[in-house]
Specification:
CATH topology of the domain at 58-222: Muramoyl-pentapeptide Carboxypeptidase, domain 2
Number of helices: 4
Largest sheet: 5 strands, mixed
Number of strands: 7
CATH architecture of the domain at 58-222: 2-Layer Sandwich
Strand order of the largest sheet: 2-4-5-7-6
Strand content: 5-15%
Distance between the termini: 79 Å
CATH class of the domain at 58-222: Alpha Beta
């Protein structure tokens, strides 16, 4: 009787232990599944390579770098035209412009900033739309002659910090007044420092600025390219 009782207690104990092991295994299994899901959810988008592409090919900048920020104003009504002239917000440039921008952005990133785009390549048909709204060469390039934007060699940009906050440049994009001029030094030290960082870094990577717009930069190597009317497909 005594031995029978000990045998029964031993069986119950073993059964309990097996139950605990099963629960632990089940728990570990669910932990593994959860871990896999988390890893998959943070996988980065695979970027494209410039290999095999001619310097004059038009490319979507976001396909080649994930380090830029965008606020494509002419795809909205938040611009000096008060009209939306792009069908959708995309930033395209020629390959050589894209390469120079990515290299410039690497320098900015080392200083805790990065490029934010307001406008990039602009099809010549869009230039005609803008000219219809504001037919004034002081504000819009005549589409017959065209703009370097129409050649894929010009960008309108500012700088943001790593969290996406814009650095103070003194005015908004497309502010047409002396406060936006590069040679206006009647500004705070912070604003002058931010503009200097933008200008000197862009110039170091082959871009040149125009006196009246702190945001506008042209790639020297793109000045002689042809005016283009390449149009991108909108991804809805």
């Amino acid at each position: 009787m005594k031995y029978h009782l000990v045998f029964m207690v031993t069986l119950v104990a073993l059964g309990c232990r097996q139950e605990v092991v099963k629960k632990q295994n089940k728990s570990n299994s669910s932990d593994k599944i959860e871990t896999v899901v988390k890893v998959d959810s943070v996988q980065k988008k695979e970027l494209k390579s410039f290999e095999g592409l001619a310097d004059t090919t038009f490319v979507r900048l976001a396909d080649f770098s994930g380090d830029f920020a965008y606020d494509m104003r002419y795809a909205t009504e938040n611009n000096f035209l008060k009209a939306k002239v792009y069908d959708c917000a995309e930033c395209y440039t020629r390959v050589k412009t894209a390469k120079a921008l990515i290299n410039a952005n690497k320098d900015f990133l080392e200083k805790g900033a990065r490029i934010k785009f307001f406008d990039c390549y602009r099809p010549n048909s869009v230039q005609y739309k803008m000219w219809e709204i504001v037919p004034n060469p002081q504000y819009v390039a005549n589409p017959v002659k065209g703009s370097i934007h129409n050649k894929g060699g010009a960008v309108d940009i500012t700088l943001v910090d790593i969290d996406g906050n814009e650095l103070d440049m003194g005015t908004d994009f497309d502010f047409f007044g002396k406060k936006a001029y590069h040679d206006n030094l009647d500004l705070s030290e912070e604003i002058l420092s931010n503009r200097k960082l933008l200008k000197e870094t862009m110039e170091a990577h082959g871009f040149w600025s125009i006196r009246t717009e702190w945001w506008h930069y042209n790639l020297s190597a793109g000045s002689n390219d042809k005016i283009a009317n390449f149009k991108w497909e909108c991804m809805h």
